Amino acid sequence: MPEPRVLLHRSPDQLAAAVCARLVSTLVDAQSSGRVPSWVLTGGSIADRIHEAVADSPARDVVDWSQVELWWGDERFLPDGDPERNHTQARRALLDALSLDPARVHPMAPSDQAGDDPDRAASAYADELATAAHGGGVGGGDTTPTFDVLMLGVGPDGHVASLFPGRPELDDERTAVAVRDSPKLPPTRTTLTMPVLRRAREVWFVVTGEEKARAAQQALAGADVTQVPAAGPSGRQSTLWFLDRPAASLLPPS
Ligand code: 6PG
């Protein structure tokens, strides 16, 4: 596993522009090699800025968006279209402006389409991941596709996706699980689990703000994953930490 690389940016907008540029080039490179790339989206405020930067980018449509698979790292378990859902926020900021293939867009089930049962929503997502792993067929050992880019915001407590410090979901071997009584509202969520956050060619942490500085420093120092979940995910080819200066303020001088 290659060592994480820190990419420092002057502001959240500069960080969002850099992530946008790298995302477009990564997706285009994959398409140029004949693959259908997959991008795992994250929720949160810096994710919104990144989505808006992609929507506004002149290079945006160099990507054939009908040939990109979209997945989510986690989701708030709310009715479809709820403004608090990561899927809703991504649609408003970016997805509704793209020529996506609906069959390649994989939101986690909303509460009103999963019988208000987050375990059912998580299990359905695990099935969808397994089906995609086998190229649409069934059988075979893999339980998830190998994602190209897996983006993760990080909370002040070091959580990633909806995997929070000290919580049992951190040890769950399933690929997607329900989270109840989340420390971050809303309380009920569905999330990919840690083994899946290690199933990507590239993991990109996107982190801004001084309140995340301790979590970034601990994760990069190799903290215990049960205490700092952000220490867990890594890419098979690369792990990038996109940080603004406040979020990087506790890192040792490079
Ligand atoms: C969510 C997110 C969550 C988020 C972090 C950072 O559904 O809330 O997936 O993991 O990425 O909490 O959020 P901010 O970027 O808004 O601080």
Mean pLDDT figure: 96
Q: SSE order, as H and E? A: EHEHEEHHEEEEHE
Helix content: 25-40%
Rg for CA atoms:
17 Å
Give the beta-strand count.
Answer: 9
Given the C-alpha coordinates, what overall shape results?
globular
The order of strands across the largest sheet is 1-9-8-5-2-3
How far is the N terminus from the C terminus? Answer: 21 Å
Derived from helix and strand composition plus strand pairing, the structural class reads: alpha/beta
The molecules bound to the chains, other than polymers, are:
6-phosphogluconic acid
Low-confidence stretches: none
What topology emerges from the helices and strands here?
Layout: E1 5-9, H1 12-32, E2 38-41, H2 45-56, E3 69-72, E4 74-76, H3 86-93, H4 118-133, E5 147-152, E6 176-179, E7 189-192, E8 200-207, H5 213-220, E9 238-244
Parallel strand pairs: 1-9, 2-3, 2-5, 5-8, 8-9
Antiparallel strand pairs: 4-7, 6-7
Helix pairs in contact: 1-2
The protein binds 6-phosphogluconic acid.
Structural summary, described in words:
With 254 residues, this protein is α/β, with parallel strands linked by helices. 26% of the residues lie in helices and 18% in strands. The chain contains 5 helices and 9 strands, in the order βαβαββααββββαβ. The protein has a 6-stranded parallel β-sheet. Strand 8, helix 5 (213-220) and strand 9 form a beta-alpha-beta unit. The relative contact order is 0.18. The site of 6-phosphogluconic acid has 15 residues, from helix 2 and strand 4.
